[in-house]
Amino acid sequence: MSADLVSLAIEASKKAYVPYSHFPIGAALLTKSGQIFQGCNIENASFGLTNCGERTAIFKAVSEGHLDLEEIAIYGETANPISPCGACRQVMTEFFEPSAKVTLIAKDGRTVEMTVEDLLPYSFKELE
């Protein structure tokens, strides 16, 4: 499924609303039941109100009642595979298992695969 998610993440980035940074991000996630949700970053003139592509996809899935998230792919127009911000890493930790696969994608199509736990070891959730 990763190849499909990569294509869908790239496709999602084309819908990004990025009039300030001109830095589109796209994400596609797969639920354990086979549903796919896409998301893009959506900027706001008040930068703190901007939402990242990863969180858009996750929030879409959760708002539709899907808490069984399995895998996510994230695309950025970066020389190296995109690195999610800290807020996105923490949200992924909330909704994915630590072993869930995360595929990071560069503008040339190169990918790096890791897990949610790789992205945020010793996360806040683990402190409960």
Please give a structural write-up.
Helices cover 29% and strands 27% of the residues. With 128 residues, it is an alpha+beta fold. The model has no long low-confidence stretch (mean pLDDT 95). The protein has helices at 2-13, 53-63, 86-95, 116-119; strands at 25-31, 36-40, 69-76, 96-105, 111-115. The termini are far apart. The chain has a single domain (2-127), classed as Cytidine Deaminase, domain 2 (3-Layer(aba) Sandwich), CATH 3.40.140. It has four helices and five strands. The chain is globular and about 35 Å long. Strands 2-1-3-4-5 form a five-stranded mixed sheet. The active site is at 54 (proton donor). One of its GO terms (cellular component) is cytosol. This enzyme scavenges exogenous and endogenous cytidine and 2'-deoxycytidine for UMP synthesis. Zn(2+) binds at residues 52, 85, 88. Residues 1-127 form the CMP/dCMP-type deaminase domain.
How are the secondary structure elements laid out?
Blueprint: H1 2-13, E1 25-31, E2 36-40, H2 53-63, E3 69-76, H3 86-95, E4 96-105, E5 111-115, H4 116-119
Parallel strand pairs: 3-4
Antiparallel strand pairs: 1-2, 1-3, 4-5
Active site: 54
Pfam family, one: dCMP_cyt_deam_1
Catalytic activity: cytidine + H2O + H(+) = uridine + NH4(+); 2'-deoxycytidine + H2O + H(+) = 2'-deoxyuridine + NH4(+)
